[in-house]
Amino acid sequence: MSRRVPGLPGVLAGATAIALLAVSCASGQERSSPGNTATPANTSVAVNTKSSANKWTLPRTADGQPDLEGIWSNATLTPLERPPELAGKQFLTEKEAAEFEKQVLQRENRDRREADPEADFRAYNEAWYERGTEVVASRRTSLILDPPDGLVPPRTPEGQKREDEAICGTNVHGRCKEPGFDSWEERGLWERCITRGLPYLPGPYNNNYQIFQTPGYVAIYSEMIHDARIIPLDGRPHIAKNIHQWLGDSRGHWEGNTLVVDTTNFSDKASFKGSGSTLHLIERFTRTGADTLLYEFTVDDPATFTRKWTAAVPMTRAPGPIYEYACHEGNYALPAILAGARAEEKAAAERAAKSASK
User: Fold this and answer.
1) pLDDT mean values, one per 10 residues, the chain (358 residues)
2) CA atoms of 7 and 292, how far apart (whole Å)
3) What sign for the dihedral angle of Cα 3, 4, 7, 8?
4) Under 8 Å between Cβ of 80 and 203
5) What are the start-end ranges of the H helices in the chain?
6) Which of 9, 6, 4, 23 has the alpha carbon at shortest distance from 221?
7) Are 135 and 97 in contact (CB under 8 A)?
8) Which is nearest to 71 in space by CA: 164, 209, 180?
9) Entry pTM
10) How many angstroms separate the CA atoms of 299 and 311, rounded?
11) d(CA 181, CA 62)
């Protein structure tokens, strides 16, 4: 499969590449094409890797840990939340899945300008997208496993307020559903090339992650906006509660063949669906086959959500390489967006002055 990447294709940014390679063992990992063999994540969060032991043996690193190394893609057409038209339906039949995939691809096709007049004003045409072409192998109707309705639980009043502000911004000029336009600081973290954030969810492109392992550490490098996490496995405590970071403070440990990562200390500026600095994220990485890895996460934030919730995102091995995501270098839209807002404000002021003089 060809790779289509927004920005300038190239190698990893030098400093980050050196840092990641420093914590990576000489893995000698195989590079095979991604297969459509994802282990179904249907009714249970746990995955029994022994079920396919007669077909596949879990590889291990030199220090005996399950080998998660490689480049993995989580691209899928399965949405995080169950669509309203599929309410009450946890799984699609094979025929329904094929029809769902066809509908989503047609709806999201940015080249279909005759069906979507607004497409002329979008940032990219279809050539830039790499959202995947199929639903997950289990044909679940949502990535969310729990609650059973496949929906993000209701938010607390505090969480709803943060979510509304994240959607609408602090000064929306009468246009809710868009962030503010007064300053670059009011634009979203993705748009400002700061971080894609956590947890790892599929997006429209650059859904690739490279995992490195060395005794005592796991490092995860995201292709989108070049986020990098170095996760210690030595049992050290979390940093002081008053220190907050974009990607939080992660601590990992092994539970059998599953890497469990516990992350706290998030910045309240890195909101995930209304979350704040109280977000507690538990992630699980389980190798399920030669070319498959299951990523699960549980969101535990009583200040934001009325209950915990869990999602499962199958990943498949990607051929690579990881591309440099040259975000700021090509972020021409940001000054244009702000200049447009200033022009609108000027025009509104002139109209108001003209009306007042009559």
Assistant:
1) 38 37 38 34 40 77 97 98 97 98 90 60 75 96 98 96 69 46 80 91 95 97 94 98 97 98 94 93 98 98 97 96 84 85 92 90
2) 28
3) positive
4) no
5) 14-22, 94-108, 157-168, 333-356
6) 23
7) yes
8) 209
9) 0.80
10) 9
11) 52
Distance (Å, rounded) from C-alpha 40 to C-alpha 166? 34
CB atoms within 10 A of CB 227: 20
Task: Please answer whether residues 311 and 296 qualify as being in contact, where contact means their C-beta atoms are separated by less than 8 angstroms.
Answer: yes
Distances (CA, A) of 179 to 22, 267, 275, 349: 39, 19, 17, 21
Residue 64: partners with Cβ closer than 8 Å, 6 or more residues away: none
Please provide the DSSP assignment of 287-306 as one string: EEETTEEEEEEEEE-TTTBS
Geometric angle at alpha carbon 216, from 296 and 309, rounded to 5°: 20
Q: Phi then psi for 312, rounded to 5 degrees?
A: -125, 130
Structure tokens at 131: 């959202």
C-beta separation of 316 from 34 below 8 A: yes
